[in-house]
Design brief:
Layout lengths: L2 E7 L3 H13 L4 E8 L5 H8 L4 E5 L4 H10 L6 E6 L2 E3 L5 H9 L3 E10 L14 E3 L5 E3 L2 E2 L2 E2 L9 E3 L7 E5 H6 L12 H11 L3 E12 L10 H18 L2 H24 L3 H23 L16 H6 L6 H6 L1
Parallel strand pairs: 1-2, 1-4, 2-3, 6-13
Antiparallel strand pairs: 4-12, 5-13, 6-12, 7-8, 9-10, 11-13
Helix pairs in contact: 1-2, 6-7, 7-8, 7-9, 8-9
Length: about 325
């Protein structure tokens, strides 16, 4: 199988200088691309000068994560795409377990490795950790990460497991599946587009798995930190988009109703914390959702929607009321 590693870049010269060397050193099985989202720094010149073996794709605009990859991957020929953040440090032999899983597991379309924190290497990292899941209300979380609580890596997720979504920080996807699903939804711009993409893949009958024998280290927050109101805006809005598109109609309307209520509670909580910009971000997210609801509703596919898409009814209730901080305890409950 031919594999292409595609690193989406926007003004990330410093990140490429730090982390691209590990990708080149440990990825002999792959062709490496940097897809540049119309950067205004010296990213492209830096890669061209120092790493001539790396192929460069220059997008004409900064369309965010979703459109950036959609545009770039049209120009890449490979059986498997690896979408890799520019702030990821890979490890020796990280590709072999991934390629073996694609070869040996039927109907697998998307794979995620173990994602560890680059700054605290014995802890899981926020974006992806040990594989992604959602609750009945569509809130995403991970094995190894529930809300802001990160687990220490003690080998508890050194397995191969079917998951619900794989992080865009390091996602392997078959080319034919990416094309069949028409890639990411560009209206998301950034954040949670991978949840929507994986949900659509699940609705089409494909498997998404986590392979713990492959590990990478992710810096995280290099584009938007968790404290940035824009990230709050995108996460709240895009989650509502995904529910609208990927659940049976009646169920989607019920879930949206409860999500809007819980979002309101989250907004009040931000006010109590004097984080007024995040309160405004949620308000703006809802306005944007209302404006684009009809557009998102029209994107609903004629497919067999999953009946059981969640592993717990409410991660909010489990985390904030029952104080569950560990995925294995959550699922056991």
């Amino acid at each position: 199988m031919k594999i292409a590693i595609v690193i989406l870049n926007w003004n990330g010269e410093i990140l490429l200088e730090r982390y691209l060397p590990s990708v080149i050193a440990y990825s002999n099985e792959a062709e490496i691309y940097v897809a540049d989202n119309a950067s205004t720094d010296e990213s492209v010149a830096f890669v061209s000068k120092n790493y001539p073996s790396v192929k460069i794709i220059q997008n004409t605009e900064n369309g965010g994560f979703a459109k950036g990859y959609n545009d770039a991957l049209k120009l890449v020929e490979a059986d498997i795409f690896c979408l890799l953040n520019s702030d990821v440090e890979v490890t020796e032999n990280w590709l072999q377990p991934i390629l073996a899983a694609f070869s040996n597991i039927k109907d697998v379309a998307i794979i995620q490795p173990k994602i560890l924190d680059l700054l605290k290497k014995d802890y899981f990292e926020y974006a992806g950790a040990g594989g992604g899941f959602i609750d009945q209300l569509g809130y995403p979380f991970c094995r190894g990460r529930i809300f802001q609580t990160l687990e220490r890596d003690n080998g508890q997720y050194d397995d191969i497991k079917e998951i619900f979504w794989a992080t865009g920080a390091c996602m392997f996807v078959k080319q034919n599946v990416f094309k069949e699903l028409n890639g990411f939804d560009a209206d998301y711009f950034a954040h949670q587009e991978e949840v929507d993409f994986c949900w659509r893949a699940k609705n089409h009958g494909y498997k998404i798995i986590y392979v713990g024998a492959s590990k990478v280290f992710h810096l995280g927050g290099s584009t938007l930190s968790n404290m940035n109101p824009k990230k709050t805006y995108l996460n709240f809005r895009n989650s509502l988009f995904s529910i609208t598109k990927n659940l049976p109609r009646r169920k989607a309307f019920i879930i949206i109703f409860f999500r809007l209520l819980l979002d309101g509670i989250a907004a009040v909580r931000f006010v109590c914390q004097f984080r007024f910009n995040h309160f405004i971000a949620i308000f703006r997210a809802h306005l944007s959702f209302y404006r684009q609801f009809r557009k998102m509703y029209k994107k609903r596919e004629k497919t067999k929607f999953l009946k059981k898409y969640y592993v717990t009814k409410s991660i909010v209730w489990s985390y904030f009321v029952h104080k569950v901080r560990n995925f294995n305890i959550l699922v056991k409950d």
